[in-house]
Amino acid sequence: MLSEKTIQIIKSTVPVLEKHGLDITKRFYQLLFTHHPELLNIFNHANQKQGKQQTALANAVYAAAQYIDKLETIIPVVKQIGHKHRSLGIRAEHYPIVGENLLAAIKDVLGSQATDEILQAWAEAYGVIADAFIGVEAELYEQAEQQEGGWEGFRAFRVDRKVKESDVITSFYLVPQDEEAIAVFEPGQYISVKMEIPGESNTHIRQYSLSDAPGKPYYRISVKREDGQQDQPAGKVSVYLHEQVEQGDVVLLSAPAGDFVLDQKDDRPVVLISGGVGLTPLVSMLHTLVETNPNRQITFIHAAQNGDVHAMREQVEELASQHSQVSVYWCYDKPTDHDRATNVFHKEGYVDMATLQEMVPSKDVSFYFCGPMPFMKALYSNLKEYKIAEADIHFEFFGPAGSL
Ligand SMILES: Cc1cc2nc3c(=O)[nH]c(=O)nc-3n(C[C@H](O)[C@H](O)[C@H](O)COP(=O)(O)OP(=O)(O)OC[C@H]3O[C@@H](n4cnc5c(N)ncnc54)[C@H](O)[C@@H]3O)c2cc1C
Ligand code: HEM
After folding, report:
1. Does the annotation flag 207 for ligand binding?
2. I need a surface site. Which of 86, 121, 227, 388 has the fewest CB within 10 A?
């Protein structure tokens, strides 16, 4: 238990730390990776370079500090982060390392403003926050390891099939090398892939949503090749998977994780909306629903630039033709001449209010969506304008969680 005085010190210093947020987090990562270079094998270097992770970790510590006397209210957020940590293999012994380096960074940046009293209060508060994470993650580790077909850490899987889904997206069907059972997952969940890339000094871990229904003898992931642009290097893991990983090769996976999951007890109509490669968790939900709940009405809306990069179209259209519960709707913002000639899409442009008004059967539905950040922001604001209750809006970020 923290003393009332410690709680007051924490609450009164959160704004100061937030003001120097970026400097502290930059310093924090410098210190962390200098003292513990082995952690470079776990953190995503691209997220670091783009500043996404800097903002996520330390800001979460400050946010938690604001709720230091009622941490139970932020447990849902802790769980979401805990899933990511569990899938990356973050363990209790990592927490003191982060704590020490965060405090050292606070001290370095604030200088004499960071009195011993303040540093002591933050050390205690970090300990309480870390314990909340460690507790949540211990449960997640236990679930992942104890469930049938579950496992600890990273397990070797063999690429059974590699299937091109569009010009930029390829699916990998992965079977366990030990030929034992694999854990059932919830549609919407992801696995982490740990990749050793020749010539790279660190391993790279990336998350990929499972794109088929659970209960199959394989896991399917569908990966977009991130080619990069002039000022951006090509994506490390996605390009390596596309170019170098072939049938028969082995990849390392951690057990399924994530709290973006389909509520299968809800029988109301469901609307699954995706942009680009964000379709993967929603395709898993779609396959699951048609296999398990023939009565639930499903609207599947997908936005792609055009037919060349539109993955899994035939697969989804086939499901819709076999199951009258499914309606599909394609929005292309840059259709090709061939798309126009063959009339394969329903709307030219983005998913907008007009799309929702046309496609969504009623306002008493649940929404699940995933896609690029601008797509998610626009959609979220449309759903709010459309007066959809917060509890019916579910989404996943394909990167560190951001704010919509
Ligand atoms: C929960 C979750 C589920 C996901 N599911 C999927 C999925 O189903 N399918 C899928 O394809 N992806 C998915 N992702 C994204 C995936 O994890 C990877 O982020 C993606 O494949 C890119 O990884 P990479 O190693 O190829 O690229 P990275 O090397 O990580 O680079 C990522 C991006 O950053 C840019 N970049 C790299 N370095 C710099 C730099 N120095 N300066 C500026 N820009 C830079 C690159 O150009 C690239 O566009 C998911 C992510 C999450 C969090
Ligand atoms: C109380 C302490 C911690 C807090 C509040 C915290 C918070 C966060 C947050 C908010 C994210 C982003 C989640 C997302 O992707 O949506 C994250 C990711 C991550 N965390 Fe933590 N974290 C803590 C401790 C740790 C520790 C001890 C480690 C291990 C050294 C760690 C390693 C990571 C890694 C590797 C990622 C993913 C990074 C990436 O993909 O770029 N975290 N954490």
Report:
1. yes
2. 227
* Count of structural domains within the chain: 3
Q: Are residues 140 and 9 in the same domain?
A: yes
How far lies 57's CA from each of 330, 376, 380, in Å? 36, 22, 24
Average pLDDT, the chain: 94
Q: Is pLDDT larger for residue 60 or for residue 284? A: 284
Q: Is residue 227 part of a domain?
A: yes
Rounded distance from Cα 57 to ligand 2 centre (Å): 5
Residue at 403 is within a domain? no
Q: What's the pTM?
A: 0.96
Q: What is the C-alpha to C-alpha distance for residues 207 and 15, in angstroms, rounded to an integer?
A: 33
Instruction: Say what percent of the chain tops pLDDT 90.
Output: 84
Question: Residue 57's pLDDT is what?
Answer: 77
Four-CA torsion 214, 303, 223, 167, nearest 10 degrees: 130
Show which residues are catalytic: 95, 137
Residue having the nearest C-alpha atom to atom 34 of ligand 2: 43
Q: Is 360 helix (H, G, I), strand (E, B) or coil?
A: coil
Q: Is 350 annotated as a binding residue?
A: no
Pocket lining: 284 vs ligand 2, CB cutoff 6 Å: no
Mean pLDDT of 31-58: 84
Q: Which of 41, 59, 84 to mutate to test the pocket of ligand 2 (most atoms within 8 A of CB)?
A: 84
Residues 385 and 300 in one domain: yes
C-alpha span between 325 and 309 (Å, rounded): 26
346 and 373 in a single domain? The answer is yes
Assigned domain for 261 exists: no
Average pLDDT over residues 341-362: 94
Token representation of residue 366: 């649940």
Whether residue 54 has pLDDT greater than 70: no
Q: Which residue has the least CA distance to atom 41 on ligand 2?
A: 44
